[in-house]
Amino acid sequence: MKQYFKVDEWKVIEEGFDPAHNKVAESVFSLGNGRMGGRANFEEAYSGDTLQGNYVAGVYYPDKTRVGWWKNGYPEYFAKVLNAANWIGIDISLNGEQLDLAKCKVLGFRRELNMQEGYLKRNFRARTATGKEVEVEAIRFNSLVDDETGAICYSINPLNFGGYIKLTPFVDGDVVNKDANYDEKFWDEVAKNTWDDGAVLQMRTRKTGFEVATGMKYHVALDGQAKRIDTQPVTREKYVGAEIRMNIEEGQRITLYKYAANLSSQNHPKEDLVELTKNVLDAVCHKGFDTMLAEQAAAWAEKWKHNDIVIEGDAAAQQGIRFNIFQLNQTYTGEDDRLNIGPKGFTGEKYGGSTYWDTEAYCVPFYLATAEQKVARNLLLYRYKQLGKAIDNARLLGFNNGAALYPMVTMDGTECHNEWEITFEEIHRNGAIAYAIFNYVRYTGDEQYLADYGLEVLIAISRFWAQRVNWSAQRQQYVMLGVTGPNEYENNVNNNWYTSTIAVWCLKYTLKVIDDVKRLDTGKYNSLTSKINFQDEQECGKFKDIISKLYLPYDDNLQIFLQQDGYLDKEQTLVKDLPETDRPLVQKWSWDRILRSPFIKQADVLQGLYFFEDDYDVETIRRNYDFYEPRTVHESSLSPCVHSIIAAKLGDIDRAYEFYLRTSRLDIDDYNNDTEDGCHITSMAGTWMSVVQGFGGMRIKDGALSFSPLLPAGWEAFSFRIGFRGISLKVLVSKNEILIKNQSNQTLTVNVYDNGYLISPSSETAVPIKPLH
Ligand code: BGC
């Protein structure tokens, strides 16, 4: 863990420039608006260590798979999150000398991410190799209001010289992906066009044929006064720029306003892209930077109104949660049902694809409570629409009869992952997709979803489980062999408890939903079963047989669920005995050593206890938590939040707080030494869960909200806002009470601990906090 950034409740602040931390800062200060986003690269040239990244949602490249030993069933391609044209660039030349912080003496440097209003601001003072001193201020944002655009206000002040300053705003499509498998370039130029105060470059992705027009428009002010400028276009392959030369005096301030737009063929006809981009640029330029920035602040204020979490008395914890909520909102707005939430969002290339089980297991609860119902529904429909491909994927592996295996990683439903122990074996992902359907219906009460879409997905998933298990004559039970559980530090294990448990749960839930839909809408049920050729009696019979006879490993001595067969054969060392210098294990140990060790990458058995807590008594959960927590290294960002929620449930408030801080400040403090690759966006929804479900104890029981709050020792109070079935409420937990404000015009029924309360419209109820025993 490092402390690169200053603690502030609404901002992330970096003071002083350390080139060694630049890539971490580029990730943390990333900007996005759901439609486009990018890393916090500098506008001016930078020859130091940097990862350039600008991304356009949904635009990807299928990079040909590269593996050592090709195995049948591998997908041909891995969908890469594609580095797209750089629209932020502004080359600066000071009397012929290029401004490049890597070659300057940096005399002062400050970067600040304003999360309240949604912009990035950078100030620096630098001395070039020939002694020219400049002061620069750059403000940049990706507009939430005009979500295909971004804007930059870049000011330079020559402090000890006068003369020619040349600014060259540009769009550069000649970009690469660092993670390209064959060092190929992924974009070809289609067209370019320059005019007096702007330019557009249209590029096409190889293979996928997406076209994206990236345009810019600019104007200049001298000491705050608009200045007419003559520009000189500069073009070359995949590049459009415009040179602006100004002869200025020492101490004068020159400001360049650069507006940019990214329009994709996913949303517009290819042949109109250039024209439409120009129109969009004209519109935002006409609005002007200040108006756009004011609109940006207002749009963010509206977002915060619905999903802010306020923590009183602990600025580091406050900054952490706001950073997580901010990044989630930057990544996915829910307005486009073709999009999803990539583990790195718009902050880096790593992981590729846009959709992992992370969406269903971690992100759905956040969007359910903080956005309109259609947002979570769209996330579910995304998978429904890809059901055909999930069935194809299972068929490729040898399954039949409409069994579906959803991909481990995907962009469009096709599997993109290609490591056999994960692609073929980390099949628990299917369970998370079923669980999200259950979670959505439990939260919203939208039973109709099950009849319209949910049941079809559930049957396909259950058919997969029914074929994936086999009968063991020796055990006289079904077993599930050759799987990888959520703990990826163990591969190809037999009878992973989590995977088998979620499989049984899926089968049970499918049977329940079959009964419900049959009862509520027999016609719909019959047409579904004939569409998918579901042999009701026979297939349900098989499901029931597996439910009652699937082997789930358990240790009688320790009275815990066993992560998988043979787990206790491992040498049982604990994380506390690992030298700090050995961590993170994934960076310090060989894979062989990791596989043979007892160390657990992320919640595995505990993930199951979190999902299905109502099926287990508190003592069972405690025994398993006490056993597995000391063996977990939390080297997946998805891990600490689950441990935090379970610790809170068990009343272990100090550990719950420790895990909370770890999950919420994971990227700000670079806990796992990997933030330079990008931020861990999907786990940020887990951070939200650890406050609302962990400290707030929020659950849905029998269609009603319930809370059992706890307050971490150092906090004065915390509050969160959620929406639930058309009601919006604010929950404030302080030292003595929980105060629930019903901010809607409907009566709200809630349970606090074990008692029910009716809260009238626009009123509030306070309930005393139960002390911890
Ligand atoms: C985790 C997976 C997760 C993936 C993307 C991996 O490190 O082990 O569970 O789906 O990251 O976040």
From TrEMBL:
Protein's UniProt name: Glycoside hydrolase family 65 protein
NCBIfam families linked: PRK13807.1
InterPro entries: 6-hairpin_glycosidase_sf, 6hp_glycosidase-like_sf, Gal_mutarotase_sf_dom, GH65_N, Glyco_hydro_65_C, Glyco_hydro_65_M, Glyco_hydro_65_N, Malt_Pase/Glycosyl_Hdrlase
Organism: Mucilaginibacter litoreus
Gene Ontology molecular function, alphabetical: hydrolase activity
Source taxon at top rank: Bacteria
Domain Glycoside hydrolase family 65 C-terminal: start-end pairs: 698-756
Swiss-Prot/TrEMBL keywords: Hydrolase
UniProt domain Glycoside hydrolase family 65 N-terminal: residue ranges: 13-265
Coiled coil: none
Family label: Belongs to the glycosyl hydrolase 65 family.
The Glycoside hydrolase family 65 central catalytic domain, residue ranges: 322-689
